[in-house]
Recover the amino acids of this structure.
């Protein structure tokens, strides 16, 4: 159930947007399609919605084969990056659109629309036009409009991509709370790993038209399947032939077994954290080890440039051995 | 901006506040702005307002009674009726065909699209008397198609269709290009059929452009002279249009009579412009 995508391939001319992608999205969850721009995630979302036709493969929504269905008959709510507000209609009429064309009784429409406007905190803006709303308000209106027809799945294409950082963060938290209230199967596309890690129940990492890994945010962060996923989900650094997160490095001021000797080359304070760059015997200037510390720890260690340190990956760190993972093309 | 206006809203459920806010800087004309406004007013006055006022004054120069008899003279009345009726009909056809042609030009890819783009503008670029000549050669007594429309009202209709073709096409085209395609996809995913999407999403957004193009079409149609004169044969009471009738009055030294008919044309044009503006607003509100 939920959404099942089987062996979807989609080409635009010579460009392969999706290459034999299969995927299962569980009912009632908030799933993120995460990946770099041009990786195929938006195309996949549009294929699920019926706005794009796959060259081959099938799409099943809640047990119904939707591959041949037009978007009108998929019962899918779609939210666009640039809101796609009906400019000539008031907020009320925008939200009512799906119900009006279904010829529902006026009273029923009114009740439902006001209920939804309340849900998205726009009840006092019912008579305004989209042009009189801020970006965040327009996107909330678009969400209410999509929810109005009680879709079996909600698809959001970079829903916060056009908003500034502050509003983005607010809407992200709000979307999470909304989903906890409404429980409709939701898939959203993002290229922002923080957004995906923070909001979703499950993340699908898509790159170059293929699924790299699927899992919960912590599973992906802690057990990345490959170098691409590890690099895409957060900062990484090299230590002794391994790929490690900068906050997963233990520092010792005295030599210990299985550590790498290093010299501090730079210390930078950024708010509550301290970033240390160090050079080990086997690294070159351009390829220093980055270490991320809390301020408290940095103060206790009393680090200084030129100081000798001994480094090793924490015992519970997610580390990838670069010598036995096949090299991935990461741009 | 949103914040300050939100503060003034009563928390009523369906208040009827209209949000009219002057654009920033309106009401505060700088020195450059004042100069610009002055120049624009002077320019418009010299070119448009003063000559028009002169025509209206001239038409009443022998009193309202003479104005009335000049306008209701059988040949004047017939010319005015033919001109206004045919122009309205032509504008109506332009609305449909102009929108259709614009749609095809913007949304479809086909061989020869660029050539068609140029052809659309030909009636606009061609001297209208040349257009008249072409129509006479094609649909005149020696028609190679064996369609003889000479000296008929259909000739007037055809000539006006020819010269007004580009207006709706050219006003609708840029709006259609700029139209947010996401809106149509959003409507489709909400369950709207292609027809409903066109009728409830595309058309309301094109309406202002269609109205503007129609106004231009109509204005051009009621003032056309050259294209109609050859094929229609210019028969008073039958195929003579108002502008030709005016020219005839001037030639027979009845300037006041000519001005009277001209004033009626002027008022008609004004009324149609106002009607289209109102229609446009109404369409916007209804969606």
């Amino acid at each position: 159930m939920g959404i099942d995508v089987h062996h979807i391939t989609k080409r635009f001319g010579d460009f392969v947007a999706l290459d034999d992608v299969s995927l299962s999205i569980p009912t009632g969850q908030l799933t993120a399609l995460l990946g770099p721009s041009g990786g195929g995630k938006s195309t996949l979302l549009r294929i699920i919605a019926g706005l794009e036709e796959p060259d081959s493969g099938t799409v099943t929504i809640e047990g119904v084969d939707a591959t041949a269905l037009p978007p009108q008959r998929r019962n899918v709510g779609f939210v666009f990056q640039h809101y796609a507000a009906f400019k000539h209609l008031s907020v009320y009429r925008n939200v009512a659109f799906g119900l009006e064309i279904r010829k529902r009784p006026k009273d029923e429409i009114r009740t439902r629309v006001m209920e939804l406007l309340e849900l998205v905190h726009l009840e006092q803006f019912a008579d305004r036009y989209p042009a009189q709303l801020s970006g965040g308000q327009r996107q909330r209106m678009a969400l209410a409009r999509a929810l109005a027809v009680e879709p079996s799945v909600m698809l959001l294409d970079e829903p916060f991509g056009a908003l500034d950082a502050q509003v983005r963060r607010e809407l992200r938290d709000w979307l999470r709370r909304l989903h906890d209230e409404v429980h409709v199967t939701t898939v959203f596309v993002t290229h922002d790993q923080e957004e995906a890690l923070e909001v979703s129940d499950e993340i699908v990492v898509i790159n170059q038209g293929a699924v790299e890994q699927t899992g919960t945010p912590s599973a992906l962060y802690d057990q990345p399947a490959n170098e691409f996923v590890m690099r895409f989900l957060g900062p990484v650094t090299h230590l002794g032939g391994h790929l490690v997160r900068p906050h997963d490095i233990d520092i010792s001021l005295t030599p210990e077994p299985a550590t790498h000797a290093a010299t501090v080359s730079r210390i930078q304070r950024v708010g509550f954290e301290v970033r240390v760059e160090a050079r080990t015997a086997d690294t070159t200037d351009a390829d220093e080890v980055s270490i991320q510390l809390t301020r408290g720890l940095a103060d206790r260690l009393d680090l200084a440039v030129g100081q000798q340190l001994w480094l090793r990956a924490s015992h519970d760190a997610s580390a990838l051995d670069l010598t036995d993972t096949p090299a991935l093309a990461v741009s | 901006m949103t914040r300050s206006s939100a503060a003034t809203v009563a928390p009523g459920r369906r208040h009827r506040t209209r949000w009219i806010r002057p654009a920033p800087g309106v009401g505060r004309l700088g020195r450059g702005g004042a100069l610009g406004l002055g120049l624009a007013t002077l320019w418009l006055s010299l070119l448009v307002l003063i000559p028009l006022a002169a025509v209206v004054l001239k038409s009443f120069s022998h009193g309202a009674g003479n104005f009335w008899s000049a306008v209701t003279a059988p040949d004047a009345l017939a010319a005015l009726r033919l001109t206004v009726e045919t122009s309205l009909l032509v504008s109506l056809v332009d609305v449909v065909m102009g929108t259709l042609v614009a749609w095809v030009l913007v949304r479809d890819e086909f061989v020869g699209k660029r050539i068609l783009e140029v052809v659309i503008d030909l009636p606009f670029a061609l001297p209208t008397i040349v257009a008249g000549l072409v129509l006479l050669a094609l649909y005149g007594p020696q028609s190679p198609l064996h369609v003889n429309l000479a000296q008929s009202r259909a000739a007037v209709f055809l000539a006006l269709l020819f010269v007004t073709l580009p207006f709706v096409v050219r006003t609708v085209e840029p709006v259609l290009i700029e139209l947010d395609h996401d809106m149509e996809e959003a409507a489709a995913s909400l369950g709207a059929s292609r027809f409903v999407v066109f009728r409830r999403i595309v058309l309301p957004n094109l309406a202002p452009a269609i109205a503007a193009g129609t106004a231009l079409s109509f204005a051009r149609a009621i003032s056309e002279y050259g294209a109609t004169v050859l094929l229609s044969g210019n028969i008073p009471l039958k195929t003579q249009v108002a502008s030709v009738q005016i020219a005839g009055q001037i030639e027979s030294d009845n300037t006041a009579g000519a001005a009277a008919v001209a004033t009626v044309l002027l008022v008609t044009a004004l009324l149609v412009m106002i009607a289209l503006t109102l229609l446009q607003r109404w369409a916007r509100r209804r969606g």
In short: The two ends of chain A are 36 Å apart (CA to CA). Chain A is about 30% helix and 30% strand.
